[in-house]
Amino acid sequence: MTSLNKVVLFLLLSGVFFSGSICMVEEWLHLTDIVLSISMLGILFMYLLNLKIDLEIPKVLSMIYFFFLLFIFISSLVNGSLQSLLSSFRYILIFITLSIVVPNLLKEKTLPISMGALICSQIPLIVLSFTKQNPFIDIYGYGAYSGIFYNPNSYGLVVATIFVVILGLYYEFIGSGRYGIQLLLLLSLFSLFLLTIFSSSRTSVTAIIFIIIMFLILYVIKNNGLKKISIKRIRNIFLKCIASIFCIVIFIKSKYFNIFEGKILEKYISKYNSGDVLDQRGYIFSNTISEAKLFGYGPDYFTKEFGIAAHNTFISILGQFGLCASVLFLILWMVLINKSIKFYFKSENRYSMLPVLIVTFFLLTSITEIMLMKTSMLLGMIIIGLIFVESNYKRN
Questions:
Q1: Of 26, 149, 170, 301, which one's alpha carbon is 20 to 30 angstroms from that of 130?
Q2: DSSP 233-286
Q3: C-alpha to C-alpha distance for 340 and 357, rounded to whole angstroms
Q4: In this predicted structure, what is the pLDDT of residue 10?
Q5: SS3 for 93?
Q6: Which 3 state secondary structure label does DSSP give 136?
Q7: What pLDDT does 376 receive?
Q8: Is 223 helix (H, G, I), strand (E, B) or coil?
Q9: pLDDT grade for 305, boundaries at 50, 70 and 90
Q10: Nearest partner of 191 among 120, 139, 116, judged by Cα
Q11: Do the beta carbons of residue 161 and residue 195 sit within 8 Å?
Q12: What integer pLDDT is reported at residue 201 of this predicted model?
């Protein structure tokens, strides 16, 4: 592909990721489907301009996804829901464009271009949030910070998604000697972590902490295995541990830890003492599972039955589209996390850490939030095709 084509694809992917976040901004909600549709149709048009490129299709994941779509289609007919029917067509278009077309067009450039597009599409939303209300001016005066988003959890999820992507980018520069870029990325990560704390989103903060721990474990296993131990590596591990402990101590002694304690830890403790850590989500989960049907109840099930959303990606699919669709969707992501881990250890791609981080992030946040069509899921759809295409691309 020419450089111009890559720039166009970068802009179109920015539109796709932008739609995954503006669906959580009340004033822009009506633009979500318009931006997403234009972006995806643009990607398809880019493929038509490059018809000479043969499409590599991830057969196993495509089959799982096909049956998932089939059961959504059947559910829409059983429940007489036009909205579910339209959703099935949207899921088809997303899979074709993001999981098949994009990785085949960009090949080894898929991850860096996707990462750049995601970051560039989300930064304006963070900046606009600052123009509405700057959380750093009076860090104690605000409650849960939401910026331009319709609730603090939505803001927290957007910021946490950027955090995970930049963490995946940071992996590429470890050991490169480019200390200026590493420092800039670390400062960005710290700032994003603080913004996530300001949102009081337990889901986002917990997911970030888990992702950081996972990042460290995976990095040590791959780069400092028992067979690779040397004096130099032991020294590097020791220095990194010292630096990490130093940063943790500074954070604990800073005023930001008091914010973390007040907005996150005390929230966990109060919910635990009240016997409802999941904040009424447990009731929704258990009732939906006990009342589950093969093809679900349609898109209005949760608003009619509980008056609120499902607050879980897989429970949402279970209630709306039924048992078959929810099981297949879960299997899809379980297969993907397995392949992402293998990709990290076997691939020579400089950004090989990102797939396992973003898929894990999607699964973690899906436990207490609906992540369908959100930015992390859209990037995950690209990863579905990337992992398969890159292995075949190198083999050829």
A1: 170
A2: HHHHHHHHHHHHHHHHHHHHHSHHHHHHIIIIIHHHHHHHHTT-TTTTHHHHHH
A3: 9
A4: 96
A5: helix
A6: coil
A7: 94
A8: helix
A9: confident
A10: 139
A11: no
A12: 85
Q: Are the C-beta atoms of residues 12 and 115 closer than 8 Å to each other?
A: no
- Please spell the DSSP secondary structure of 364-383, one letter per residue: HHTTTS--TTSHHHHHHHHH
Residue 112 DSSP label: H
| Predicted confidence (pLDDT) per residue in 80-127, tens digit | 888 888 888 899 999 999 999 999 999 889 999 999 999 999 999 999
Matching residue, tokens 């590493």: 182
Task: Please write the tens of the pLDDT for every residue from 225-239.
Answer: 545 555 555 555 566
Residue corresponding to tokens 């009424």: 280
Q: What is the pLDDT of residue 56?
A: 82
Instruction: Supply the mean pLDDT for the chain.
Output: 84
Tokens 């992501």 belong to which residue? 333
Token reading at 288: 């939906």
What digits encode the pLDDT tens for the residues 199-225? 888 889 999 999 999 998 888 888 765
On the 0-12 / 13-18 / 19+ scale of CB atoms within 10 A, 7 is exposed
Q: How far apart are CA 185 and CA 306, in angstroms?
A: 43
Residue 396's pLDDT band (cuts 50, 70, 90): very low
Written as one letter, the residue type at 277 is V
Query: Six-digit token pair at 82?
Result: 């036009």
CA distances from 293 to 86, 87, 310, 314 (A): 21, 19, 16, 14
Calpha distance 145→139 (Å, rounded): 10
Q: Check if the beta carbon of residue 165 is closer than 8 Å to that of residue 208.
A: no
CB 87 within 8 A of CB 296: no
What does the buried/exposed string (b/e) look like for 227-248 if buried means 16 or more CB atoms within 10 Å of the residue's CB?
Answer: eeeeeeeeeeeeeeeeeeeeee
Q: Which of these, 298, 314, 288, 257, lies nearest to 139 by C-alpha position?
A: 257
Alpha-helical segments (H) within the chain:
3-22, 32-48, 59-78, 82-94, 102-106, 110-132, 152-173, 179-198, 202-223, 231-253, 255-260, 266-273, 281-290, 301-305, 313-321, 323-346, 353-365, 375-395
Instruction: Report how far residue 259's alpha carbon sits from residue 25's, in angstroms, rounded to the nearest whole number.
Output: 25
